[in-house]
User: Which sequence fits this backbone?
């Protein structure tokens, strides 16, 4: 049995007695469509097999008692007195509790043990995984009667309001609704979605982790969102039909936003180009044309690096290196940026050679051995059925 499940059960027993159940909630990748969810376009995420496991059980009082196996740390707080704490990992659990309380749900006390193997700060959305696991667990434990979409939206709200990162809906959606071997094409405006089978015979998805996270990440993220909103507000005065960058065209941006701040212009133009690129990339997927899909990944990286300006030297280095490897057909930074992982689409036979070479030169250049994780696309948030 999965050791993480065992740990989540064992530590719960050591600290609190018998858990009611364990929830598994995965991290996510995103094939293409970066910084597009909050701009109303399409994204192509999938859940992965790295996940967070939360064992959970009721208490008879009004406390929340938590233990993180990974940080080997306890945390306790009264349900009525929750506020953001210095205990970073606990905040993600508390964010969900507060969001539920603010939405009018009356919660009882509970214990939870958190254990996971999603590398933190790597752009794989470990935070969304915790939020989804907790909301799914509380929904079950306290019979809150939330449906899946309500849980996704509340988990996103928890991140937006309590944590303070104005993220879009992609991470929570992918963690909750992932399916084995399927990527999700999500229309972030209507929230309509469809699954695409993704198991190319010849190719492997591979993540390389820069193992850096530059501290500007959260504030710059929120600033990008504001810049895009400023662009939309401006366009909307001239084109009332534009209520998000999904409705805008490159020509509109060229004619109306040039001369405004360079940031607003460049960021909006990137978003409009990326929205179009994802739609074309979906056609490549249907045609199983992975070479053409991979080219678009490189284009996305260029846009994210030069126009959206959310990359960093470490990410640029790994993508440039990937571009020179004969077996890599696509590579780009993934997620919010300023560190974390690159996602690479590579011929299976080249994986080992690429990892070896990339690791060696990255180590030489930055003094860090990067992480390398071949991706397995897995199911979304669910109860663990195994004995624990
Ligand atoms: C982070 C956010 C997502 C999304 C990506 C960029 O992961 O949480 O909502 O905006 O960045 O695509």
Assistant:
């Amino acid at each position: 049995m999965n050791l993480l499940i065992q740990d989540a059960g064992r530590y719960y027993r050591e600290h609190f007695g018998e858990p009611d159940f364990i929830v598994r909630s995965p991290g996510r990748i995103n094939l293409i469509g970066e910084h597009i969810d909050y701009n109303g376009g399409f994204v192509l995420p999938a859940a992965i097999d790295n996940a967070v496991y939360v064992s959970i059980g009721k208490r008879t009082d009004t406390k929340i008692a938590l233990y993180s196996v990974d940080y080997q740390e306890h945390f306790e707080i009264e349900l009525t007195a929750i506020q953001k704490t210095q205990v970073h990992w606990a905040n993600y659990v508390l964010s969900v509790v507060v969001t539920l309380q603010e939405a009018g749900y009356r919660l009882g006390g509970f214990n939870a043990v958190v254990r996971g193997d999603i590398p933190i700060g790597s752009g794989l959305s470990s935070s969304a995984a915790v939020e989804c696991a907790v909301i799914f667990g509380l929904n079950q434990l306290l019979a809150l009667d939330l449906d899946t979409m309500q849980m996704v939206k509340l988990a996103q709200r928890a991140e937006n309001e309590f944590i303070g990162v104005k993220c879009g809906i992609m991470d929570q959606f992918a963690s909750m609704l992932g399916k084995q071997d399927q990527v999700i094409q999500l229309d972030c405006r209507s929230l309509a979605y469809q699954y695409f089978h993704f198991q190319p015979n010849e190719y492997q998805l591979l993540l390389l982790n820069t193992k850096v996270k530059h501290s500007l990440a959260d504030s710059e993220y929120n600033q990008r969102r504001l810049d895009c909103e400023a662009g939309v507000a401006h366009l909307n005065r001239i084109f009332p039909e534009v209520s998000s960058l999904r409705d805008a065209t490159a020509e509109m941006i060229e004619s109306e936003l040039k001369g405004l701040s360079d940031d607003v212009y460049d960021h909006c133009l990137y978003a409009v180009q990326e929205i179009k690129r994802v739609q074309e990339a979906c056609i490549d997927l249907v045609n199983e044309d992975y070479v053409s899909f991979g080219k678009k990944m490189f284009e996305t990286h260029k846009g994210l690096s030069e126009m959206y300006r959310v990359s960093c030297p470490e990410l640029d280095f790994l993508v440039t290196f990937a571009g020179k490897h004969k077996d890599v057909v696509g590579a780009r930074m993934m997620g919010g940026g300023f560190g974390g992982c690159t996602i690479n689409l590579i011929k299976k036979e080249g994986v080992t050679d690429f990892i070896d070479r990339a690791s060696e030169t990255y180590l030489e250049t930055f003094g860090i051995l990067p992480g390398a994780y071949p991706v397995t696309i897995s199911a979304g948030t669910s109860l663990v059925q195994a004995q624990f």
In short: The pocket of alpha-D-galactopyranose is lined by residues 34-35, 37-38, 125, 167-168, 170-171, 335-336 (CB under 6 Å).
